[in-house]
Design goal:
With 82 residues, the chain is mainly alpha-helical. It is built from two helices and two strands; from the N terminus they run αββα. A two-stranded antiparallel ribbon has the order 1-2. The longest helix is centred in the C-terminal third of the chain and has 17 residues.
């Protein structure tokens, strides 16, 4: 199974935004925006581990998932425009 970081690096690379291997080589100054889709797993597991996104009655599970994915992408890209 490919890691989330490897998948993001491959996407950035295919867009011409990686000039060296690894996260240090991302051309963060060229990133304008990143669009990503996220949804909580309906079976309650992420990679075999239990998640509680479906149990929170204050915030929908989609918002939890979007926050997690947005944080991962923003951290790797060095930008918050996700």
């Amino acid at each position: 199974m490919r890691s989330d970081v490897e998948g993001l690096l491959q996407a950035f690379s295919s867009a011409g935004l990686v000039w060296r291997d690894g996260p240090a080589g991302i051309a963060t100054d060229r990133i304008v925006n990143v669009f990503a889709k996220a949804e909580a797993s309906p079976n309650g597991l992420v990679r075999g581990f239990r998640h509680t996104m479906l149990d929170d009655t204050d915030i929908t599970s989609t918002r939890h998932a979007r926050a997690a994915v947005g944080g991962l992408i923003a951290g790797l890209a060095g930008r918050g425009e996700v």
